[in-house]
Fold this protein.
Amino acid sequence: MGQCNVKKSEYHVGKNKPKLPKRIAIYDTTLRDGAQALGVSWSLKDKLSIAARLDDIGVDYIEGGYPLSNPKDRAFFREVKKLKLGHGRIAAFGMTRKPKTRPQSDSSLKALKSCPAAVVTIVGKSWDLHVRKVLRTSLEENLNMISDSLDFFRRSRREVIFDAEHFFDGYKHNPEYALETLRRAAGAGADLICLCDTNGGTLPEDIGELFRKARQTVDVPLGIHVHNDSSLAVAGTLAAVAAGAVHVQGTINGLGERCGNADLTAVVPNLVLKMNKKCLRSGSLRKLTELSRYVAEISLQTRPDYQPFVGAAAFAHKGGMHAHAMQRDTASYEHVRPEDVGNTRRIIISELSGAATILAKSEKLALIEDRKVLRKVLNEVQDLENEGYQFEVAEASFEILLHKALGRWHRFFELDHYRTSILRRGVGEPLTEAIVKILVNGYTEYCVAEGDGPVNALDQALRKGLQPHYPIVNEIRLVDYKVRVINPREGTAAKVCVVIQSRDDKHQWGTVGVSENIIEASWLALVDSVEYKLLLEEDKDKGTQAQRHKGTK
């Protein structure tokens, strides 16, 4: 075991410690650590949308990224201010200064200083192996890097968090040095120190024991950040809370590099429902399943059915003994109530029965008073979900489905046919053309358009046909287009789910289409997008007429 070759600092604290708090701060690092997950790539709009959802559920800290890493992260910190978040504090991530440099000239620290985020999180090395072999500097210089970097922000009037990277591995190898990094951070003005199990290899009981030693060493609030390389990130996080952590870091759905981070969709319910801790906004735990599925969809990831608390199978009971017992007492095979986390119970008698989870939680079902209609809607959505449809990021398609079920829907146009063609010569860009023939208000419209690809060409041709009858379609702008393969084992014959995000000057909405043919899936999503805009305009006109009628009385 290595030894610490530096003098112990004066930042030592007494043995008296306050009682463990009831409130645990939730620090979400989905947009930074989660973005490092294999296969995850978000646009700026995606990141802003996720941030808004995190704020809505009551997350205390939303880590937006590393301002020095790329233009998208820098743009995020500018644009997120326009969201006017009601609760979450935006945090920017960065590293300590480089060896043998001054904080004022270090590019990472300068980027953090110029970033408008209210919170600054600085990561520094607590494992002497990393200091010697990765940073290739002395142990004393690393301690100075920590002190100098944190002191650089002492007068900035911003909250400063120090992430003690590899603390647990560092302690096992050189305990005195690992603790000294915490003392230096505390002495330099860190508002909170987060102990990181960066390699994800520490057992929960060891995390609890070493966390208590850290609490005896510094008089600064401590947090926990655990990776999931041993499938113990949630357990390790809860062990740290039991040992005194007041701040928990993690990601939605456990997204993160390698095997991921502590999954907040499991950490938070355990804190609230099992450990009697307060976190998030009151009552917002019921939005957890919706948030989990939203992040999965916007990340183009298949939702894991067996994910605790929020998975589709988390409260699913098949026929036989379990289903019989559930009829007597739901506690017989459920450790928490599904509605507490926004999920639903499914009693599955056969492979064809059960109810769709998304509709069961929708407030809009209150509009449906007829139970036969309600059952019809539930069955239809279940069938669509089995085909691959997901409505968490396609609210507009869901609204259209409800209007149809309630008998409040009429077609704005009918399709006769569409056709796309792509001409690819030996050199140059391919040329794409689309033909759309539709029937609108008794007129036949036959339109041809060119585009950057088949979806863009179809969009242009459809608008041409609708514009003389519904000029409002010119206000629609397509802002995002995503494709997810539903059954990849089928190869090129697999079904795809296409999600389109559209907007006008006041609204943004998502629509979805599913088919083995990517063009058809795109067309279905495009049609829903256009018809939803026309529906909005129709509802607006009805509201205006109602106001006029009321004024004449």
Summary: Confidence is low (pLDDT under 50) at residues 1-17, 349-363.
